[in-house]
Structure formats: structure tokens, C-alpha cells
Amino acid sequence: MLSQLDDNTRPATMAGLFELAPAKINLALHVVGRRADGYHLLESIVTFADHGDRLDFAPAERDRFSFSGRFAPALSTGSGKHADNLVLKARDRLRSLLQDQGLAAPPVAIHLEKNLPVAAGIGGGSADAAAALRGLLRLWDVEVSAPELDRLALELGADVPMCLRSEPMLVRGIGEDVTLLPDFPSLALVLANPLVGVSTPQIFRRLERKNNPPIGPKGEGDWVDFLGMLRNDLEPPARSLVPEIAQVSAMLDAEDALLTRMTGSGATCFGLFETMDTARGAASALQRRKPDWYFQAVQTAGHKSGTSS
Ligand SMILES: C[C@](O)(CO)[C@H](O)COP(=O)(O)OP(=O)(O)OC[C@H]1O[C@@H](n2ccc(N)nc2=O)[C@H](O)[C@@H]1O
Ligand SMILES: Nc1ncnc2c1ncn2[C@@H]1O[C@H](COP(=O)(O)OP(=O)(O)OP(=O)(O)O)[C@@H](O)[C@H]1O
């Protein structure tokens, strides 16, 4: 059963078990083909921010779900019913998998602090679903095999298996073929979103060319130089649908970002900066110019000896 807690701030009694749900960033996204079922085959270099949603979990007498945070209103109006929330889908699917194996999955109170914009290309829903799986496995003190967990994650969404790991990676297929990139540098980025929600299927439908060149091998060179040679193939169709993407991208360029690109199906763009100090300075300057838009300086996962150290 679903119910809303009276107070939509995070309940103090839920201290203890929490999971972060970091923003996903597609540093490059090449669409290289199409499957028979219509899903597009991708090659993507993905990393994760030190900023995201937060999920709190506590045992309860019956299942409860509540949310708070800057983007909680977008959730309730966006999806209409809370029952659509990927956190609840993740809870219910994991519970039935465990019960099929004779394991207990007792009622749980979950609170979602929604800090990430919704339908923004930074995988907020997928990150929440992955964090729900991780948190519930800890709360219920149970294990499922890695292939079973990956299968369940992929059923919840193409991005959920990547979000389970939240480390720099090369992703192929639709999200199921993940290769971790242990030598990938930690980067200083500014995430910038004009707060125009973008529907992922709509962007894929607008994409004209489905067979674009693959990412190819990096060779001996630097990761950041390599990224500069890559693309997001979803950026042209997204720009044609949402004119603010060109605007937000130009604003990042004007702050002297080393590289500016859209992530996922948009509308969030990222700008790459030399250091976290310059990224924070750029985010503050941009926020002053557009007080209602979303600007966030983030440090990404990976080796701290990279460009942004
Ligand atoms: C674009 C990315 O954000 C890149 O990381 C993801 O591939 C999208 O992942 P996601 O939001 O979890 O997407 P899903 O919820 O699985 O798919 C939403 C819809 O987008 C389209 N879709 C999605 C992924 C993909 N590789 N090809 C597609 O054509 C399909 O119409 C699908 O029904
Ligand atoms: N916990 C959640 N957070 C955000 N959106 C959710 C959640 N649960 C369900 N949704 C639904 O999922 C849709 C996509 O939201 P999300 O924020 O995950 O998109 P996205 O960042 O564009 O994802 P991606 O980068 O994977 O394409 C929203 O329109 C919303 O209705």
C-alpha cells in the first residue's frame, strides 16, 4: 500500500540507512544501430557526479513512500501517480524476486529527496531505482546474484544497470554491456539545464541517422582530448525540439568551458572546467544570469589525478 507521510521533509526517525543516487552524465553518446524491437544501439562514455538524489530507508509496519526536495513538485505533477515512481517499481520487483526465492522482504518506509531535475538526461529516475535496489538489499540483509540483479535493473530502465555501479564506464548495447574504465579521470563539470523536460522516446523518434560511426579505440592519448573528438548523436534532434539547449550551451562556452556537450536525451548540458574552483565560479555566474534555471558544479567519479585535480 502506498501512503504519503504527513510531513514531506525527511523524517528524523529514518536516520541510519541511506543511499545516494548520483547524476549520470553521458560524456559521449553515439547511436550506432537499431535492434529489431526498435531500441537503439548505443556506445557511450558515462560517468557520475558527486551530486544527486538521496534515498532513506527504514523498517515500517506497512510500505510508505514520501518525497521532498527542489524537484519533488515536478515528480508529483510529471508522473501524475506516485505509483509510477521508479523507486516503487524497483521495490516491488525486488520484493517479488526475493519472495520467489523464499526470502523475506518486509514493509519499508522510503523517503526520496529529489535534488535532480526530472526528465533531464541525467538519469534521475534510473539513479533512484538503482539506489532503491542497493538500499533495500542492505535493509533486508539479503543477496541476489549479480546477473539476476543486472537483469532486474535492465527491466526497470536502460540506464539502471549503469547506475547500480556509478563509476566511469564504457557502455554498449542499450545499457547491458558495461566495461568499467579504472583509469578514467575525475572531472570538474557544470551541469546546466533550462528546466524544459525532454521525453527520451520523442528524441529517439526525431533522430534521423541511426547508424553513426562508433566511438572507436582511444589509443595512448589523454581521455579529455579523446572526449573532444566524440559527440552526442541525440544533441541535434534535442536542439531542434528545445531551443533553450543552444542557449544553455552557448552560456557554458562563454564561461570558457574546455568542452560543452549535452548529456543523454537532454536538455542538461555539461561544461568541462580545469578545476572545481573555476567550475563553481562559472556555476554561480550562470545562476545569477538565469536565476530559475538549474546550474550545479560537480566533481565526477574517477582518478583524482586527472584534469580537474
Ligand atoms: C539516452 C540514455 O539516457 C543514455 O544513457 C538512455 O539510453 C535512456 O535510458 P532510459 O531513460 O532508462 O530509457 P528507457 O526508459 O529504457 O527507454 C525509454 C524509451 O526510449 C527509447 N530508447 C531508449 C533507449 C535506447 N537505447 N533506445 C531507445 O530507443 C525507447 O523508445 C524507450 O521506450
Ligand atoms: N524517481 C523518479 N525520478 C524522476 N523521474 C521519475 C522517477 N520515477 C519515475 N519517473 C518518470 O521518469 C521520467 C524520466 O525521468 P528521468 O529524470 O529519469 O529522466 P532522464 O534524466 O531524462 O533519464 P535518462 O537520462 O535515463 O533518459 C519522468 O518523466 C518521470 O515521469
Give the helices and strands, then pairings.
Layout: E1 17-34, E2 40-59, E3 64-68, H1 72-79, H2 86-100, E4 108-113, H3 124-140, H4 146-156, H5 160-165, E5 169-173, E6 177-180, E7 188-193, H6 200-206, H7 223-228, H8 235-241, H9 244-254, E8 259-262, E9 269-273, H10 276-289, E10 294-299
Parallel strand pairs: 3-4
Antiparallel strand pairs: 1-2, 2-4, 2-5, 5-6, 7-9, 7-10, 8-9
Helix pairs in contact: 2-3
The structure holds 4-diphosphocytidyl-2-C-methyl-D-erythritol (CDM) and adenosine-5'-triphosphate.
The site of 4-diphosphocytidyl-2-C-methyl-D-erythritol has 18 residues, from strand 1, strand 2 and helix 6.
Binding site for ATP: 117-127
Pfam family, one: GHMP_kinases_N
Organism: Neorhizobium lilium
